[in-house]
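Hello forum,

I keep getting stuck at the same step: I have a sequence, I want structure tokens, and every attempt I make locally crashes halfway through. Rather than fight my setup again tonight, could one of you with a working pipeline run this one for me? It's a single chain of 384 residues.
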Amino acid sequence: MNLHGLAERLEEVLQKNHSDGIEVGASVAVCGPNEVLASVHVGHIDAARTRPWDDDTLVLIWSATKGPAVACLLTALEQAGFDLESRVAEFWPEFGAAGKSDISVGEVISHRAGLSALDDPAASVLEYASVIRAIEQQPRLWERGPLHGYAPRVFGFLLDEMVRRLSGAVTLGAYWNTIFREPHNLDVWIGLPEEHHDRVAQMLPPKGQSCPDERDPFVAAMGDPSSLTRRAFSSPSGVPGVSPMNSPAMKSASIPSFGGIANAVSLARFYAGLANARGGDGWVSKRVFDYATTRMAQGLDQVLHVPTCFSAGFMMDPVDESGSKLRSTFGPTISAFGHPGAGGSLAFADPETQTGFAFVMNQMQPGVLPQARAAALVEAVYTS
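Reply #2:
Ran it on my machine without issues. Output:
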């Protein structure tokens, strides 16, 4: 990675995206183990473009929340003396109902457990107990084997309840505050206090597509109410669209699946802290680092309908039989790991350079995985 002119290259790309009308407001950051290498922001935090985006701006990061949430689960697991081979029912007995007694922690967090969606329509995002009951009663959606399928909503509740069982009833949001946010002074929140609400950028839904490609398997599956894809993105219920996520109730809600609120610098610092753990100096143990960098599930995703790869809860770029990347969402480094968020946000760790990258924004684009605007920023980081 060539750091000379890094901020200038990132600003050039971000300004172009803004002038092209892709962004309303956005920020990008790259951090090393102990320093901010680059931090750039553009635009405004509101649709009316009356409030400039600044260093203090926070924004919803959707599923990029899963990265911090997974770090909590892996740390709590280690502290309690369990590992990825441990059965979830060992410390959460009710989880073992409906034929799930043999499911391991590793299967759950690599999206191989067949729990991508819930059958119970009463389970609601804002009624935590209803979701946990539904998970306990839910049979797995496919038999044990090589299949995996991303769980966009259910996943965070699985993590939260496992952390509670492992830590003595401490919620994942509170655990994050104690283990990561407060010790490292991070502006990354899973449940935002009311006094910080005014700092949050308005999240804007994707601009309408005139002709979505119905030949795309993911688009076709989302159009079918009975498909696993549609069910996974709508259960548990309770979030009817993008705009409700701007409400005070949703800002304060602790939703580890997709409710995190952060700025780019803090998210990049978090991943730099993970990237540095290979040498024993990071924010997690070497064991947790190894979990994060070991591919556990790869192939055609049963929910996203594209090849995906997961380590212990983090997403990685899938590789072919020769070990070469099929895409470079997380840059060129094979061991890079992180998580995207719906609409375009992206954050990851690069263990080879011991850096963390984060891009956040308030104007969403269609799709779940990052597209050209994030790719251009990642490319700018690695341009030599």
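The two ends are 7 Å apart (CA to CA). If your local run keeps crashing, start a new thread with the error log.
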